[in-house]
TrEMBL record:
Pfam families found in the cross-reference section: Lactamase_B_3, Rieske, SCP2_Rv3818
Rieske domain residues: 465-517
Protein name: Rieske family iron-sulfur cluster-binding protein
E.C. numbers: 1.-.-.-
One of the record's GO cellular component terms: cytoplasm
Organism: Mycobacteroides abscessus subsp. bolletii
A GO MF label: oxidoreductase activity, acting on paired donors, with incorporation or reduction of molecular oxygen
Keyword Metal-binding: yes
Superkingdom field: Bacteria
Keyword entries, A-Z: 2Fe-2S, Iron, Iron-sulfur, Metal-binding, Oxidoreductase
Length: 517
């Protein structure tokens, strides 16, 4: 099996039974905030696009690149489709001209047969509202000799099925770096922001190491990040100035962490790097440049590399910005009311979970999303808000013009906004913004309405607690960490007070717990 990095979460997997192109992202994403790092724009995309199979893990724009798929990828490629609750991914790919699909079943091993032979595959599909744009996934592929697990940025809850169906995993690709806007965009004291950033940087790498330990693969390829920020306004988000609170560490940082914890089989891969495997044997690893040059990109030469990259991409960035809607125009109250109120009317779980009016500052205009009353309105004099956002009106006008179903996958991941809140994170609020269609909001509301079984218990550091995390049902025997009287689930970093079971991260989500002895 030959595995070529095509950048970020993208891989080109070649076997005797056919080739699979995974998540081929090259064009800037999220209002031109994110670019692949290192630069992958000079790869031979026509060669990679002549694949036998295509796998797009989910619709986040650093995985689903419609322009690249349109321009370079063979439309006769067989699409390996995750088992998602809403059909958005299939519809998008059909709209680009793809017409042959293998509809997989979540966490079930399938054999796909083509003119070149047979491959065994499994797609682990995550379906919670917090998982991507209503769905995220990881792909397992075996050619009978070598087995690779491309987990990209998915966060599976239960991985026992891997060993049950495939035995030993030879190669594991997964995310270790940040892909979020917290805490950078939040209005909070600098010291608090630094503390939260430092904590998040380490926790996301700790979570990655826990997954590595669970999967037990021989070789690990850190991937799916970090993005590169080339716009001058966002340049400080790059981890190129020794900031311990930066949530976007790169591959060399994580590979060093792996070595510190006794794992020396992590592989640095940049766009164009080719790794050749036979079972758990690494036959060769070839970079498109020397090893010293590859490592220099992430080390002493990183800031200069990003500056040169920004200069090359300046016309691309300018073209992207010119495609945005103008900042000036008619008041936004009416179109936001038309967009949001029909969605609000369909969801009791989410509106009640948000529980308060939310302020949107849009240039010189303020609009209030009154979730308790299910209306969009003007502000009331001296009104106080528990949650608020400041967003450039041109971004809002663009997503309204384009009828975007997901503001998380457009505005929020761009980091081109400011936010504030009183109290903890509210999962329901961001879920609302990613579910701006009838199908999505119906699914998410139903998901929150389900009663999840919490009857099984585990013992952890002197406490008896429910086994499954109240957030997304992670196994706390694997992801739970007790520090004093608090429990942290490292899958998403949520915390609970063990004495009273109260969630310290978000409203609701109480934990069953009691002190032993």
């Amino acid at each position: 099996m030959r595995v070529t990095s095509v950048g970020h979460a993208g891989f080109f997997i070649e076997t005797a039974a056919g080739s699979i192109l995974c998540d081929p992202w090259v064009n800037p994403a999220y209002f031109a905030s994110w670019f692949p790092f290192p630069d992958n724009s000079t790869l031979d995309w026509d060669r990679f696009g002549s694949c036998d199979y295509l796998y797009v893990s989910h619709l986040h724009k650093d995985h689903y690149d419609p322009k690249n798929l349109t321009d370079h990828v063979n439309k006769d490629a067989v699409v390996l489709l995750p088992d998602y609750p809403v059909p958005d991914l299939r519809r998008e790919l059909e709209g680009l001209g793809f017409h042959t699909f293998v509809e997989t079943e979540d966490s079930v091993k399938h054999r796909v047969s083509g003119p070149k032979g047979d491959l065994d595959i499994m797609i682990i599909a995550l379906r919670a509202p917090a998982d991507g744009p209503i769905g995220d996934s990881g792909l397992v592929v075996s050619d009978g000799t070598t087995t690779a697990f491309n987990m990209n940025d998915a966060r599976p809850v239960d991985l026992d099925v891997l060993a049950e169906e495939f035995g030993h995993i030879d190669v594991h690709m997964l995310q270790y770096s940040g892909a979020i806007w917290y805490p950078m965009v939040y209005d909070m004291p600098a010291r608090a922001k630094e503390a939260f950033g430092t904590q998040k940087r380490q926790r996301q790498m700790d979570r990655c190491r826990q997954y590595i330990a669970q999967v037990g693969a021989t070789w690990v390829i850190p991937s799916a990040g970090p993005p590169c920020f080339l716009d001058t306004e966002l340049r400080d988000l790059n981890d190129d100035h020794d900031d311990p609170a930066n949530i976007f560490p790169d591959q060399l940082v994580f590979l060093d962490q792996m070595r510190q914890h006794g794992h020396d089989k992590g592989l640095l891969m940049i766009p164009g790097t080719v790794a050749d495997f036979t079972a758990s044997e690494l036959n060769s690893l070839e970079h498109p440049v020397s090893t010293e040059e590859a490592e220099h990109i992430f080390g002493a030469g990183k800031a200069a590399y990003i500056e040169a990259y920004a200069q090359r991409m300046a016309p691309v960035l300018a073209a992207e910005k010119s495609s945005w809607a103008p900042a000036e125009g008619e008041p936004l109250l009416a179109p936001l009311r038309a967009k949001f109120e029909p969605i609000m009317a369909q969801t009791d779980q989410i509106c009640d979970g948000i529980g308060y009016p939310v302020e949107l500052r849009l240039g010189g205009e303020t609009v209030v999303l009154d979730f308790p009353k299910r209306i969009v309105r003007e502000p009331i004099p001296n009104e106080k808000y528990r949650y608020g956002f400041e967003i450039a009106p041109e971004l809002v006008r663009t997503v309204l013009r384009d009828d975007e179903p997901d503001w998380v996958n457009t505005i929020f991941l761009s980091t081109r906004f400011k936010a504030w809140r009183v109290g903890g994170y509210n999962e329901y609020l961001y879920t609302f913004f990613k579910c701006l269609t009838d199908e999505r909001i119906a699914y998410a509301d139903g998901w929150f309405a389900e009663a999840h079984d919490d009857s099984a218990s585990i013992t952890l550091d002197g406490w008896e607690i429910q086994r499954r995390c109240p957030h997304l049902k992670a196994d706390l025997s694997k992801f739970g960490v007790v520090e004093g009287k608090n429990l942290t689930c490292n899958l998403h970093g949520w915390e609970w007070n063990l004495e009273n079971g109260r969630c310290l991260t978000s409203k609701g989500h109480e934990l069953r717990s009691r002190k032993l002895g």
